[in-house]
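Dissemination and training. As part of the outreach component of the grant, students in the summer workshop were shown how a complex can be specified as a set of sequence lines and then modelled as a single object. The example used during the hands-on session is reproduced here so that future cohorts can follow it. Participants entered these lines:
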Amino acid sequence: MKFAVLVFPGSNCDHDLEWALKHVLKQKVEMVWHQQDALPTGVDCVMLPGGFSYGDYLRCGAIARFSPVMKAVSAFAKKGGMVWGVCNGFQILTEAGLLPGALIRNASLSFACKDVHLKVERNDSLFTSGLKGKDVLRIPIAHGEGNYTCDAATLTQLKQGRRILFRYCDPNGIVGPDSNPNGSLESIAGILSENGRVLGMMPHPERACEEALGNTDGRMLFESCLNALSRA
Amino acid sequence: MYLAKIHVTLKPSVLDPQGVAVSNALKNMGYSGVDSLRLGKYMELRLEGQKKDRARVEADVETMCKKLLANVVIERYEFSLELLP
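and obtained this result:
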């Protein structure tokens, strides 16, 4: 499987993603500078990394979304391509209109940097099909603007389309205000596009891919994709 | 030359945690009459154009607000346009 990792000025999780994909998962990875107006040929999945693209000026992701490469990413997504945004990548995808809603300042006003638990709301998605019954993951977060919000009509669409993929929860999988690290609407941590092939999530699975880091829950999400695409 | 003065604010339905924190600070200072406070952004934009170009300049600023300066999912914007001498 071939991944493209986009690099914006201010991206800082691009190399973590590259490491996880290339060295841990043994996949092909191409780093794509944001000024390029085309994606490399043969790409199966485009990843938008975490960081602070354009210094979060104006709004997180607002300026990156107009980078030349994003036109190609939109076209790729519209053709059914797989696109995965993590943290700032999620913010860019909402700004670009590839995912609905927006991510605003954490309700606490504090930058949240810690491990959280995620309730996996469905295990038949491209990203979660390999979890083998595991429905609670432990994945780190690191963000100041991860408070997901959308209007009531959008929330209904997300629910009816089974597009809420991850919710913040406690270690037992119970979703509630005490385990919501940023005030997100309905504890939303990650959502899918209508066709289920674009994922945006605030937590960082690439930081949880190796035993040496004490956590491999994130790797299961990447392995799900590999398995799903090799079957297709 | 035109001067556009643009205000971008969060929609009333969107929680503004910064605004809540600042209004609480005002209350703690003793301003018990403070009801609420919403934080927003103010931008000044200078654009080329003469008197006859007003409609085009106004349409441009409108599009700039919609596409970049505000995120209409969570924000509202309003602006005024002034022809500079």
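The first helix of chain A runs from residue 14 to 24. Students were then asked to discuss how this feature might be tested experimentally.
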